[in-house]
Design a protein that fits this description.
Elements (H helix, E strand, L loop, with lengths): L7 H8 L1 H4 L5 H7 L6 H25 L19 H22 L4 H15 L10 H10 L14 H24 L1 H6 L5 H18 L2 H8 L3 H28 L5 H24 L1
Helix pairs in contact: 3-4, 4-5, 4-6, 5-6, 6-7, 7-8, 8-10, 8-11, 8-13, 10-12, 11-12, 12-13
């Protein structure tokens, strides 16, 4: 029997904390908008969400072992780790997610179970990520439960609706940019994404069109004019700036530095999300 030799570097690349750390505050948005929220449920929601995101990354890496081999060092699965090992290493994170939530934030047990299920069917066979468009949109389905990990927000009010809508648009744009960058790996692995079907220009063009919906989303979901005006202006500046960046890439057919652009968008979207969240609670 082959001996397991799992290094710290393997675990870092398997759980990919850097790729989801900016999603970690999401339960805070739901917690603020809930009437019966406690500090204990917030702590449980944040830790449970973190463990859940670690599971989602690990299970996705486990079944991406044949996709990521074109990019050296991107995925330890298929190299220093075998798929079975990666699957087994993902299980403790899932169990930790359920345990922490059940202990500290019991109202979030159902959202946690839903999250683990939708994250699994996205990554594990038959893999919803193989289905064009649905695989792209499913990323939002995976992300939305995070809003409910610390408490159950009142979605009839504007604040949680705005957080949810802004998050969904920002995440979809990020996913389209990601598909543009990963089109070669996805094509080699037989994954049909917007990037593989429409090419880099198609995926970035779709991202540019989608980001333009951000101001409209903010305006429609906010229920207070004092929130609508500043939030829509903020979303408008963000949307115009990134539409110019993305459209320039499309016109020039420029594929150089897509990873750098994707990371810059991630950080910009994180700041945009924080500002939108701050606007809802001030």
């Amino acid at each position: 029997m082959r001996q397991w030799r799992v290094t710290a570097g393997d675990l870092v690349r398997l759980y990919r904390v850097r790729d989801w750390i900016h999603f970690l505050p999401l339960p805070l948005a739901g917690w603020v908008a809930a009437a019966d929220a406690t500090m204990t449920s917030l702590v449980g929601g944040l830790f449970g969400w973190g463990f859940g995101l670690g599971y989602a990354s690990a299970i996705n890496q486990a079944f991406d072992d044949r996709l990521d081999q074109l990019t050296l060092g991107k995925n330890p699965v298929g190299g220093s780790l075998r798929r079975r090992q990666a699957i087994l290493l993902s299980v403790p994170a899932a169990l930790a997610c359920l345990t922490v939530v059940a202990w500290l934030s019991p109202a979030a047990v159902v959202p946690a179970v839903v999250f683990l299920i939708v994250a699994t069917v996205y990554s594990a066979p038959p893999r919803l990520k193989r289905v064009p468009v649905l695989g792209t949109v499913w990323n939002v389905v995976v992300g939305v439960p995070g809003l409910f990990f610390a408490a159950v927000p009142d979605l009839t009010t504007g604040a949680p609706r705005v957080s949810l809508g802004v998050f969904a648009v920002l995440l979809l744009v990020a996913q389209l940019i990601h598909e543009a960058e990963d089109r070669d790996d996805d094509r080699a692995g037989g994954i049909a994404t917007v990037g593989t079907l429409a090419g880099m220009r198609g995926a970035l063009g779709a991202a540019a069109a989608l980001v333009l919906l951000l101001p409209t989303t903010a305006w429609c979901l906010a229920d207070d004019l004092r929130l609508r005006i500043p939030l829509t202006c903020l979303a408008g500046v963000f949307a115009v700036a990134w539409t110019v960046v993305l459209a320039t890439r499309v016109v020039r057919n420029d594929a150089v530095g897509l990873r750098t652009m994707r990371l810059r968008y991630r950080y910009a979207a994180f700041v945009m999300g924080l500002l939108a969240f701050a606007a809802t609670i001030l």
